[in-house]
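User: quick one - fold this with zinc ion bound?
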Amino acid sequence: MKTSIIGFPRIGFHRELKFETEKYFKGQISQTQLLQTARTLRLDHLKLQAQSGLNYIPSNDFSLYDGMLDTAIALGAVPSRYRNLHLDPVATCFAMARGYQGTNGDVKALAMKKWFNTNYHYMVPELDDDTVLQLNASKILTEFQEAKQSGIITKPVVTGPFTFLKLAEYTGRKTAEDFCDSISLAYRDLIHALSDAGAEWIQFDEPFLVHDLESSDFALFHKLYQPLLSEKVSAGILLQTYFGDLRDCYPDLLQMNFDGIGIDFTEGVQSLSLIRKYGFSKDKTLFAGVINGKNIWRNDYRGTLTLLAELKQYAPDIVLNTSCSLLHVPYTTAGENGIAPEKLCHLAFACEKLTELADLKHLTETARPEDDCLYTSNRKLFAHRHECRNENVQSAVAALRPSDFIREPAFAQREKIQKEALHLPLFPTTTIGSFPQTADVRKNRADYRHGRTDRAAYDTFNREKIKECIALQEKIGLDVLVHGEYERNDMVEYFGENLDGFLFTENAWVQSYGTRCVKPPIIWGDVSRKAPITVDTAVYAQSLSKKPVKGMLTGPVTILNWSFPREDITRKESILQIALAIRAEVLDLEVHGIRIIQIDEAALREKLPLRKSDWHSEYLAFAIPAFRLVHSGVKPETQIHTHMCYSEFGDIIREIDDMDADVITFEASRSNLSILSDLKAASFRTEVGPGVYDIHSPRIPSCEEITSALKKMLEYVPAEKLWVNPDCGLKTRAEKETVPSLTNLVAAARFLRSSLS
Ligand code: GLN
Ligand code: ZN
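Assistant: Sure. Structure tokens for the protein plus zinc ion:
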């Protein structure tokens, strides 16, 4: 069996690409220097893959910013506002990615969106009525030739026309249909160009196929590919899918003239049963995605070999593949000196996954793999993982009863009790939690982390900041205060570090967008709370004011979604463990006199399964109850808030209400308040704080602007349910914008109160 990967991380072992690109942005290095770094990285990565014995090495998986953006450029989908800047190609690419403000003009960037169910973001191509799609294959060909010159015939990878058209934004009257013929011609030219250059395989990524598709979608897919598949070229055409299974469209795809189909056997829960039911095709190569490209655990060779043996009965020609691009995992475990070897050996980042592919290839060619040392040492990893079990946690989860997920008394009754207990005015004002993380705040944390300050000095500094923050909020006149979150670098990392069961990496960066990378913690074992986490801080902050200060926690769904999850237990089990740990913190805060507790679920919306038909069974059915478990134990007068970053939850509005929080705050300012009519239509009962201004911009909203936003909200939300707040935490903002913005916010709420009474 041959081996292949779908794509390799581009950022580099030391995040070289990030740092060099940022230097280029600041004008510290020339474009030539940046392109030289990029080329060196590409060649190093090629060499690394070749040395590992990989057979099908991808090219064009590299990008200076984003692969979808590169595809748009390769198809000539460069909106005129960028062309009119008359910049060189690289500068044009960055103008599309980040916007441009300079001597040649002032234009906004393309929109950015989450790439399917990952934390990677792509640039959304824009197609207007004047767009003429036409191939410009220079990047794809250059990277192919460059590899060829170093002795490697790569498998060029390109986003396929279907996924491209489905993800593009249409700013004029034309639709995907209208671009069908021209895009097909562009891809036809591409396969000829690559085939002539010597490519043996060309990979078209079509992850959009793993959604629930309409019949019109599949008609579009046919229309796009039929002409391509009838071209006579020597290169094989590989239809690569990932992030799920193919369900309804699978039988149809088998009938099409692809030379290979790439199928995901890790996230594609039904992939195997589809093959059992419909078989595979004798004249196609199956690129079997058996190594998880999204998670960081070692592959279980026994399970994989069993799967491959079964697949062999249906597909005579199999290539061992990853389930998706390795873009979504860090570079190598070799950078992790802080993790004990007995733990590190359970992890496989991108480089280690290359080794796993080579191991598996070897094992499939061995007569008795069970006797091979590669096999036996792998078995040991899976034989016993006692070290990650915590019996107390296991029995606490096992002992959960349905009543643990229900808060008493019911919402309406609590709402009344809380109004009396908290004495808040109409339109209570508050913030989402964090206050500006100024340079001194970050320095204090960094000094403590690197041992340059001791714990006492670190705490003293933070307390001083909390004191200032409370005083500032009182001066501004906010009704419900926060402590400012100065001790938190990241809302998930902070809790991970303070809970048992997490593992932290030093260098395990994953690209999130452009030059931004994230370092998700790893859920290693059963999660539990070692000791109270936020109680001291909350109690101190509350001692400084008569007004309620919110306790501030991150919810279980967000903690899980922004970490690398375990694979030896279900997501549901993991979420319940985290929920129990956070529940203990909630109860502790309450005992210590905290009257309002906010449990952030910033990432709840984003991990909805790609297929709507899976939303309930695979996610909401356990995510929503887990949130309820966190707060179901509090007294009726304790008010539970939650916060979500996106307001695009019109389609799960009942489930959000079912979280049974008392108040929810969310982003609304950028989405034209469209969520409001959904709330009204659903008779949303939770009190709501739709953000009245956008914290992602340094702009200061005027009192009039906020007042008119609130008036608009009042058309949909009953006055006694409306809260007034910004749309997210203020940590990325400076004080100079924060103070006037919040002052205007309070003035707007006061104005509205007086005009209503
Ligand atoms: N409480 C957090 C903050 O204010 C929420 C952050 C978020 O929603 N991403 O920073
Ligand atoms: Zn937010």
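One thing worth noting: The longest strand covers residues 522-529.
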